[in-house]
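Hi R.,

As promised, here are both runs. First protein below:
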Amino acid sequence: MGGGERIGGAGPSGWGGGERIGGGGAERIGGGGAERMGGRRADWRGRGRADWRGRGRADWRGRGRADWGGGAERIGGGGAERMRGRRARAPAPPPAPRCRPRLPPRGLRPAPSSARALRRRPQSRAPAPRPPPPSVLPGGLPGTRGAMAGGHRLLLENARQVVTVCARGERFLAGDALHSLAVLEGASLVVGTDGFIKAIGPADAIQKLFSEETFEERIDCSGKCILPGLVDAHTHPVWAGERVHEFAMKLAGATYMDIHQAGGGINFTVEHTRQASEEELFGSLRGRLQSMVRAGTTLAECKSGYGLDLQTELKMLRVIERARRQLPIGILATYCGAHSVPKGKTAVEAADEIINSHLPKLMELGASGEIHVDNIDVFCEKGVFDLNSTRRILQSGKEMGLQINFHGDELHPMKAAELGAELGALAVSHLEEASDEGIAAMATARCSAILLPTTAYMLRLKQPRARKMLDEGVIVALGSDFNPNAYCFSMPVVMHLACVNMRMSMPEALAAATINAAYALGKSHTHGSLEVGKQGDLIVINAARWEHLIYQFGGHHELIEYVVAKGKVIYKNERSERK
């Protein structure tokens, strides 16, 4: 927990539109053009929610209805677009999302002043030029070879849908940009031997262009959908000591603080984690990460924080580093030594020890290459670390080159959202008690809000105001908050809960679990969407529409057929293996 152990009541259901996919045709993308092949999703209420009364509703009787028997049409707004053949009328393009360049994570290296200046660049300046859309093939126009000559790692061919999420190199999606996720129909995708995407486009064009190429593996995706690998922006996966008994206590009426005062909660986990060996911790971490992979996660943030003393925190970070080097899933490490105040110390004393002892040691071990830490985290909460102590720790970490990504405004309004905007944080997690002023500040600063639906669900808490954040233009990301108190590996379940309890649409939830989660981790330049030049992390689901990944509540081990990282299959379900 930190804040990482919380969970809550169900709010009203939120309905999300999706691309209406029909027929099987795809508009051809040639030369350097950037046409959408899958059309736009039906927006039934301006923000992706169903409105059976508004003027943009789907008219099932009138001339603008979806033609369920033939080609697919766009439902709502100003009529219908056909996806087969030529479109009857081209809609006005959606407004371009406001974005700014985001530097790759610097880990423990001090950031030069020029980099800091770039992060503080005013919003009024024009965004950097966008790279070509994902349908433009490297090496020139169709028919040329160029960089495409030679062997390749993976060909995924004839997919029913390829959900690229972004079409023009966006680093995040917010506001109106969330209304038009990029989806290709009848498409194929190529990953090179370096693990990066080399081409995406119509299946017939890819077949012709790569007809003489060799591939280490080819997968027929007929009738299936390809999506970006999911990104889990907030996890606590390194710990020892089961706490299943606490769930029974909660069901019997015990509160979180009741359990904490009885010796449970974080302190129970800290005690067992301190006693565990590195080998024991690595074995359990490996199993948990494998479960995440089977649910479609290809990039995860992993926190320390169940040690609190320097020795155990370093033990946890060494375990995370070993997993980063040995396992195929992508990992970003977060130092979370300020997860709780150790017994016998005040928050000020704990902050002093972290600043004067823990952080210098992290710098030393980072310079030697023993460990690599990407982010710094603090649990900013009443009775834990107050705003001043939180600011001191985060600022010290930032001066070492760590990215700020912390817990805040979970149980009480702490002005953590405002602090995150002030310090230039990549993200703030939880935010159930974020103020209107804090939400506005995060939107202006382009500080991500990592929302954790499992926490509110399992602890029966109020939901964070996701719709308010989305409407204000905050970059909303999602995380599982996996920890002993919120035992959920599955980002598809997280997306489902976000839609039902937080009233997010399905496109908003998918963006929050891919490109925006990658942005919250400083990795959206390489992860979070399927575009030429990005890492070949993706999933293949056995469904004709991508929305099944969110619509289906559980059982995703049957739905997800392949999980791919850097172009290599790292999970194949039993049904695929039998074929």
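And here is the second one, sequence first, then its structure tokens:
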Amino acid sequence: RKSECPKELEPEDRRAPVHVNLMRREEKCPEREKPKVSFQGVGRTLGATSSVVAPDSSPVPVQTGVAAAAAPSPCLVIDETAPTTSIQIRLTDGTRLVGKFNHHHTVNDIRAFIDSSRPGAPVNYQLQTMGFPPTPLADLAQTIQQAGLANSVVLQKF
């Protein structure tokens, strides 16, 4: 109406004519599509058991991934004033446990921790250190500090 050009459309030469055509549209702008998020859900491993739902029962959850803060063994007492360490235990079924131990705890205490977190599981397994070559932990009376297991990964093997 005032024949003024918006600053965004002004040419370098102010004497040059500017033609602006406006079109009125009565439709609404389409909403933007939400970005798709990849890798959602639960990870599965080959050979893992799945939950089976019976018609008149509730689903049985399958525990996968890291078992966060598994209930410690009642016989395992952690002294917070003494040096503590976390040990990740990779079980044969693919799950991982993270246990908190003192440096004076033994390999047998690690076995007791595994046995208490998996009641009814077979106990004829062997523990070995992660690394190359894997070292079997045959001496059950060896402390975590003596075995060099502080902040390490221990594998369960049958």
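A quick note on the second one: Residues 52-70 have pLDDT under 50 and may be disordered. Let me know what you think.

Best,
J.
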